[in-house]
Write a structure and sequence with these properties.
Layout (H helix, E strand, L loop, with lengths): L1 H11 L7 H22 L6 H12 L28 H11 L1 H7 L12 H9 L11 H6 L4 E6 L7 H10 L5 H6 L3 E2 L6 E6 L6 E6 L6 H4 L1 H13 L5
Parallel strand pairs: 1-4
Antiparallel strand pairs: 2-3, 3-4
Helix pairs in contact: 1-2, 1-8, 2-3
Length: about 240
């Protein structure tokens, strides 16, 4: 679902990030990406060669020039000081946990390094094709066992675009699938804030919330609204 809908956000979203020529090139590669995923999942077990090949092919859909638009929030431009185009908060976190007084207070040994985003760690996951798996299927036994599932998503996120997340939620085979597909999205708490889709009593057994005015780090962008969402969820209070 992620790669199926990735170019929809990058090329056809409210803020197109790729230009026309890049979109044409990437859309040509999309069927090959999706076929490589099917090929990798055809065999039982974990075929590293197939999955890593699919990962490289599909990840190339993300390497186009975004013209300075942040994938974490399409309303924002990348920080020129960070070539990775990541939010300031990640650097602030590294600075905080790198301070000797903080490390001493937490009892962190000197030889342990804190890094917000580690390229070597990412490379190890990529080497084994970790991203090529239908991880959303892990939700199915949880839902059948009565574990409640909440997804709240920033509408301006292009890293994990809302359309891709909604796609796999629709595909989940659970006791709530048919009702989830029939249930409309309704405004909450206002038309300008968010929409909610709730299946089940209270805050729901399976709930989707699309939040306007927020990107990938939605709790950072809309802290008060996210606090209210979590309080409703923990107390199992209806979103009305």
């Amino acid at each position: 679902s992620h790669f199926s809908w990735l170019l929809d956000r990058l090329c056809l979203g409210p803020v197109p990030m790729y230009n026309a020529s890049t979109c044409a090139e990437k859309f040509q590669a999309l069927p090959k990406c999706l076929d490589s995923i099917r090929f990798a999942e055809q065999v039982p077990g974990w075929d590293v060669e197939r999955r890593s090949a699919a990962g490289k092919l599909c990840w190339s859909l993300r390497d186009g020039d975004t013209h300075g638009i942040s994938g974490e929030d399409i309303r924002k431009k990348c920080d020129s000081l960070d070539p990775r185009c990541l939010p300031h908060a990640l650097r602030w976190t590294e600075d905080l946990f790198g301070r000797s007084d903080v490390r001493d207070a937490l009892g962190v040994p000197d030889h342990i390094n804190f890094t917000s985003l580690s390229e070597p760690v990412f490379a190890e996951f990529a080497k084994y094709g970790d991203i090529i798996q239908s991880a959303y299927r892990l939700y199915e036994p949880l839902l059948r066992a009565g574990i409640r599932l909440l997804h709240y998503v920033g509408a301006q996120d292009a890293n994990c675009a809302p359309a891709g997340i909604m796609s796999f939620l629709k595909l989940l085979q659970s006791p709530f699938q048919e009702e989830f597909l029939r249930t409309p999205d309704v405004p909450w708490p206002t038309n300008e804030d968010a929409t909610v889709r709730v299946v089940g009593k209270g805050a729901g057994n399976m709930t989707w919330i699309l939040i306007d005015g927020g990107g990938h780090f939605i709790a950072h962008d809309q802290p008060e609204l996210v606090k209210s969402i979590v309080e409703h969820w923990v107390k199992n209070v209806p979103f009305d």
